[in-house]
Design goal:
There is one protein chain. Helix content is 68%, strand content 0%. Helix 1 packs across helix 6, helix 4 packs across helix 5 and helix 8 packs across helix 9. It has helices spanning 9-23, 30-37, 42-47, 51-70, 78-92, 94-103, 124-129, 136-145, 147-164, 172-200. The longest helix has 29 residues, at 172-200. The protein is mainly alpha-helical and 202 residues long.
């Protein structure tokens, strides 16, 4: 009697993650996953509720990988290293970055300035002075409430998109230089603007 081969949910998710890393989210189908793990499509449908469930798991894996990059030590400056890690992730994990920000961004509900929940008890100082990294949604919520983070993140994300799409190629050192220069200019500009605003109110 032939022994029945079972395929775990973890194996299915891992296959989906690897397919996304190699060929992009568009390549992830029940059939491609089945081919990767050496089965029919039946285990895919019987082990997971839908492709949407697999997508959610791929997102979790991609976010976890991004946070690993943001925890790397590039310069020893925590805030700078998080930004550098973000850009290096886009360079080295192009398809996972694209999955997070182009193919399947967030859950379809963008974070807005009216969303206070994500920013609660998380400040610029908390994000830059500790190794704590909140979820991407919470990072976005904090950015919308703090111009220092928002402007820096816009530049960082733009740089990551250029590198991740292959438009430009930069070393870790050059990425660090550009981010430091932009950060100094942006934060300085924000602080100057805040000072002017305060003076104008008196």
């Amino acid at each position: 009697m032939t022994q029945k081969v079972s395929f775990s949910r973890d194996a299915i998710v891992e296959a989906a993650v690897e397919l996304t890393r190699e060929n992009g989210w568009a390549s992830v189908t029940a059939r491609s996953i089945a081919t990767r793990i050496g089965s029919s499509t039946m285990p895919i449908y019987s082990t997971t509720s839908s492709m949407r469930e697999i997508e959610i798991e791929v997102r979790r894996a991609a976010e976890a990988k991004l946070l690993q990059y943001q925890r790397r030590v590039f310069t020893g400056d925590l805030a700078g290293d998080k930004a550098i890690g973000y850009v290096v992730f886009a360079r080295e994990e192009k398809n996972l970055f694209r999955f997070l920000y182009v193919d399947r961004p967030t859950s379809g509900t963008p974070v807005s300035e009216a969303d206070e929940s994500g920013a609660t008890n998380t400040t610029f100082e908390a994000l830059t002075a500790t190794d704590a990294l909140p979820t991407l949604a919470k990072q976005a919520a904090v950015a919308l409430h703090d111009p220092r983070i928002l402007k820096s993140w816009i530049f960082t994300h733009g740089l990551a998109m250029l590198i991740g799409s292959g438009v430009i190629a930069l070393s870790d050192e050059r990425i660090a230089e550009l981010l430091q220069e932009a950060g100094t200019a942006l934060v300085g500009g924000v602080n100057a603007g805040q000072t002017t605003h305060v003076k104008g109110t008196h």
